[in-house]
Write a structure and sequence with these properties.
8 helices
Amino acid sequence: MLRQGVAGTSLDDVRAATRTSKSQLYHYFSGKSDLVRAVVRHQADAVIAAQHLEEDPPGDEAGLQRWRYRVVAAQRARGFAVGCPLGSLVAELAGAPSTHPAIRAELQGAFERWQGLLAAGLAGGIASDTLPARLDPHAGSEALVVAVEGGSVLAALAGAPAPLQAALDRAIAELLVA
């Protein structure tokens, strides 16, 4: 699905790539919609793990810079050839009228989880006086995710990190002067 897109990947393609039988595939997934939801969960887990949000929340300027470094490193590991894995799924699926409501809900939940972890880090920084008291953790986490998504798309277009780095730097600077 990463290489061919969701629409371009059939269950037979998945069976061939995984060398599984139909009965094995249907043992774990009731159909393609169920499989796509699992892919969304997997990609969300990968994005969150790469950013170390649970073990190193961005609660101060140094934490925000470490988070920024990890975001850029994850995109670099993909060769800046594609945007954020979650954003890529949204781009393909969110506007398609045929997208199952459960898939839309899974995508929404993935972004809410990601933003929630960022917001928790920011709230911790506010509570410990390492981030400005005026900072709104929800709005700040949304700004960070928007910077990742927009910066990743432009970095993929450029094939270089500069747009992503600039977007993250600007978002972080705004948080620090909130």
